[in-house]
Design goal:
Radius of gyration: 14 Å
Largest sheet: 3 strands, antiparallel
Number of domains: 1
Number of helices: 4
Oligomer: single chain
Distance between the termini: 21 Å
Strand order of the largest sheet: 1-3-7
Order of helices and strands: EHEHEHEEEHE
Structural class: alpha+beta
Length: 120
């Protein structure tokens, strides 16, 4: 399954530190890790939320693949429009989730407050 994850610069640096092979542990106030199923939704979050609320006003969209059999154990939640679908992974299972990532995590889009279109 191909999934997407909108991230800010700090989280991207942590991903880079793993060789683009894993997502960092969640913070105590973050009980779930929620990659999204649609690039369009990830782009909206990166552009509309990460750019606005991160100190450097940048947002990124990452793309990665997870083993189909493994991913199917998690609930998909629709949180808005038909393409606003998230996979909810409990924070305590993120390390195991990371072990099921196939290949590397790719950065496919970058947004900044000066951009009106994504950089690929």
């Amino acid at each position: 399954m191909i999934l997407y994850r909108p991230v800010g610069t700090e989280e991207l640096k942590l991903i880079e530190g793993t060789g683009y092979q894993a997502f960092p542990p969640r913070l105590p106030e973050q009980p779930i890790f929620y990659p999204v199923l649609h690039e369009r939704y990830a782009s909206e979050i990166a552009h509309n939320w990460n750019v606005k609320y991160n100190d450097d006003h940048k947002g990124y969209v990452t793309k990665f693949e997870v083993d189909d059999d493994y991913y199917s154990q998690f609930e998909i939640h629709r949180v808005g429009d038909t393409y606003h679908e998230e996979l909810w992974v409990p924070a305590e299972q993120l390390e195991e989730f990371n072990a099921h990532i196939i290949g590397r995590i790719e950065v496919i889009q970058e947004f900044s407050e000066d951009d009106t279109h994504p950089i690929r």
